[in-house]
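pipeline stage [seq->struct] | target=2,3-bisphosphoglycerate-dependent phosphoglycerate mutase | organism=Notoacmeibacter marinus | residues=207
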Amino acid sequence: MPGTLVLVRHGQSEWNLKNLFTGWKDPDLTEKGVTEAKAAGVALKDKGLSFDLAFTSELSRAQRTLSLILKELGQTDLETRRDLALNERDYGDLAGLNKDDARDKWGEEQVHIWRRSYDVPPPGGESLKDTLARTLPYFVTDILPEVMAGKNVIVAAHGNSLRSICMVLNRLNRDEIVGFEIATGVPLIYELGADTRVTASETLSSK
């Protein structure tokens, strides 16, 4: 019988707060982000969940979120695998820029296209399609088999890398995924059947 898969977007980062494009840059969590991560851990504990294996990206905001969650669960020694396949979408030349400044430079319509289209990348960066192309193979070869083997698995990563996974789990098309939002620090819980299809899902809001 398959285990449970939990996806968590990292808590608010310093650059989220400053309205900056982050991508592969590596800012830390804000105080609110720390609170969100701890609340996610408490919510998972209240749900009665514990984990056999964890995955995260190469970026510290996701790693710290995972660490804070596992501390609340009393699982600080849990086996954790890190991989850049789970990194946030690379925003290229936009990384580090204030989103309003980017609109002033390139125009609101162009920035909106870069942010919300499926397959148009910003200069020097990745589209959502590009992010999916590196995230999904890792999910299929490294994460999904562990869940199908009966392990409870938690993945702490980023908005766009997790959207790539959710696109497959939720069977969303390219138009639906661009509008699919994942809140910071809110666990998404998936139960899978023997055919890997989702049999139940839940968004676990903290109290």
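stage status: PASS
auto-comment: Helices lie at 14-17, 31-46, 60-73, 99-106, 108-116, 128-148, 159-169, 174-177. Residues 45 and 97 are 37 Å apart (CA to CA).
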